[in-house]
Write a structure and sequence with these properties.
454 residues, mainly beta, elongated, disordered N terminus
Length: 454
């Protein structure tokens, strides 16, 4: 096989740090075999920018990058590859690390339109890099959209998909490599990834299934991901091996937003999706303060998943939620389960009405509830100086399971179990008790007066 035809442009970057100057070599090359512009050797401290790519395109006459200064928008015809898995290259004493940044305080509305795929390369590929991915030195390749420190930067990555032209993002995965791959990262701050033409023919996704591929690290903060025909394949948590943070992000018009694996999301919205949370095996998801609006299916628990919703809100799905029992390879029936829990603030007062600081709060279920599978927590907490238990989001906050729905042998007919609790408060021998408390009754602030029945 002949080597790809590559035209290269090398830049010398001078990076000043504490009065010292470090020279780093960075490359913008045209890989004609992949019909792509490839970026290498731009560390996170000095990331590549769209302006640099445009300058290289003009200098070499590739005619692949257009710039509209009125809209601060760049359009790339063809694909773009960020980084390479070259950390073990024998010609280097250190491997490369590559970052591309879209948006900055100087260009707060900067937009990249892709008329091709965008790839963030892994740092390790089986058979090409020695050792194992968990022990290899990580030289992360990274796509950053927005600015972590400046919420006024609202940048965008848009894919110009249309009938018979299917483009998508591959983060940490090169589809022409069949071996196992690991690495790559996508960080989005106050910015978005969406379709340029959000009609049905313009949805983002590969030609096969319509997926966006996100097996690399993902950090989404006040972000928006929208207009994906299939699912966000590979998006899940592995805190030991990759970045993962889903905070205050809107997942909109996506075939399947969270699919399988360990998932944690806080303050996120799932709107107009096919299925917001999809269990196809191994789902262990905890979602806090999230909202589900206008989805065909809020959740589909159809294999062996566990989904826990804490202080979440949802509207009825258009096509109903799905529950299925599944017979695994060992011929053992698996019954996926939904657990809904609510935070509760217990306020304790003295008989005089003053706050009872450092009162001891205990709680217990009125009946055995082995199906409750919330993270293990203490059955005792204490009030603060204001006489209240910690507020939601604070250490030691009290969350109680309200009910569970567990799949049965009859499809989409889950068995529901609702829970009631006995709450007690005690201080210096004075006591108050509240029996029959239901976290799902809309009362999440309970006042107990020592020595007085509630």
């Amino acid at each position: 096989m002949t080597a790809p035809s590559i035209k290269a442009m090398k830049f010398v970057l001078v990076i000043a740090a504490h009065g010292l100057a470090t020279l780093a070599f960075a490359g913008i090359v045209l890989d004609e075999e992949r019909d792509a512009i490839r970026l290498t050797d731009y560390p996170q401290e000095a990331p590549c920018t769209l302006a640099r790519i445009h300058a290289a395109d003009r200098a070499f006459g590739w005619q692949r990058v257009q710039y509209d200064p009125a809209r601060d928008t760049y359009t790339i015809a063809g694909s773009l590859i960020v980084g390479a898995n070259d950390e073990w290259d024998a010609t280097r004493s250190r491997g490369s690390e590559t970052a591309l940044r879209i948006g900055s305080p100087e260009h707060p509305r900067e937009t990249l339109i892709m008329r091709g795929n965008l790839y963030v390369a892994p740092y390790w590929i089986a058979g090409e890099n020695p050792g194992e991915y968990w022990s290899a030195t990580r030289k992360n390749n990274l796509l950053v959209i927005g600015d972590q420190a400046d919420t006024n930067v609202n940048a965008a990555l848009k894919f110009a998909c249309c009938t018979n032209e299917h483009y998508t993002l591959y983060c940490g995965h090169l589809p022409w490599k069949t071996a196992a791959q690991f690495g790559g990262g996508l960080h989005i701050y106050n910015s978005e990834i969406a379709a340029l033409h959000p009609g049905d023919a313009g949805l983002i996704g590969d030609a096969e299934r319509g997926d966006m591929h996100l097996p690399g690290g993902s950090v989404f903060v006040n972000a928006r991901l929208a207009d994906v025909r299939g699912g966000l394949a590979g998006l899940q948590n592995n805190t030991r091996l990759k970045d993962y943070l889903l905070h205050d992000t809107r997942f909109e018009r996506i075939g399947a937003a969270l699919v399988n694996g360990i998932q944690e999301a806080v303050g996120c919205t799932f709107a107009d999706c096919g299925t917001a949370v999809l269990d196809q095996g191994g789902l262990r998801a905890v979602l806090r303060d999230c909202r589900f609006r206008g989805n065909d299916c809020n959740w589909a628990l159809i294999y062996n998943g566990r989904l826990t919703l804490v202080d979440c809100e949802w509207s009825a799905p258009r096509k109903g939620d799905r529950y299925r029992a599944w017979l695994n390879r060992q011929s053992v029936k698996q019954y996926p389960r939904l657990t809904v829990s609510r935070h509760l603030v217990v306020e304790v007062r003295e008989a005089s009405g003053t706050p009872a600081a450092d009162a001891e709060i205990r709680w217990r279920a009125e009946s055995d509830a082995p199906e409750m599978d919330l993270p293990r927590q203490s059955e005792i907490c204490r009030t603060g100086a204001d006489g209240r238990t910690p507020a939601p989001g604070m250490p030691g906050a009290l969350a109680l399971a309200a009910y569970t729905e567990t799949a049965t042998d009859q499809p989409d007919t889950p068995a529901a179990a609702r829970f009631r609790y006995v709450l007690t408060a005690e201080k210096n021998g004075r006591r108050a008790e509240y029996a029959g408390f239901s976290p799902d009754a809309g009362r999440y602030h309970v006042v107990l007066t020592l020595g007085v029945a509630p």
